[in-house]
């Protein structure tokens, strides 16, 4: 269902995006980078968090790490990642395939500044062996993403 929901969104919104299906797993940043032949930071890692009573997605450069102080300043609460079963239930995507597309329910998407140094990135495509090549500006538009800075050392990420 996950892959189908991503493809359905692309079709319904007439987006010129394709899901890349991989022979090997792309469930982690190193695996995805190796499978696609790109540097790890071009993998757009999507993480699900609970903020008050709302679930949100934060998309970062592959090696981006949440900075708890920045996260708390921005969201007003401590970072609390959702558990794997909650992620699947809320997003419709399994861990390793979580992406900001084809979501089961609408969710707020936050894009970390670590992504801005790239012209394009590769979020997952709804499964642990898929990816989508997308321009960073298009990612912002497609997801209605809000820019934030909640990762450590964002200034050290380079393309």
Describe, in plain words, how this protein is organized in 3D:
The chain is of the alpha/beta class. The chain has one domain: YbaK/aminoacyl-tRNA synthetase-associated domain (YbaK protein). The protein is built from five helices and eight strands. The strands form two sheets. Strands 7-5-2-3-4-8 form a six-stranded mixed beta sheet. The model has no long low-confidence stretch (mean pLDDT about 95).
Short description:
The protein has 159 residues and is of the alpha/beta class. It has helices at 2-12, 29-36, 68-75, 84-91, 136-143, and strands at residues 19-21, 43-51, 54-61, 108-112, 120-123, 130-132, 134-135, 146-148.
Bulk shape: globular
Instruction: Work out the strand percent.
Output: 15-25%
Level-1 CATH class name: Alpha Beta
Question: How large, in whole angstroms, is the Cα Rg?
Answer: 14 Å
Would you report the number of β strands?
8
| CATH 4th-level superfamily | YbaK/aminoacyl-tRNA synthetase-associated domain
User: What is the CATH topology classification name?
Assistant: YbaK protein
With strands numbered from the N-terminus, the spatial order across the biggest sheet is: 7-5-2-3-4-8
Structure annotation, total helices: 5
Class derived from helix and strand content: alpha/beta
CATH architecture: Alpha-Beta Complex
The percent range for helix content is 25-40%
Distance between the termini: 33 Å
How many strands, which pairing sense, and closed or not: the largest β-sheet? 6 strands, mixed
Mean pLDDT: 93
| pLDDT < 50 runs, ≥5 residues | none
Secondary-structure element series: HEHEEHHEEEEHE
Number of domains: 1
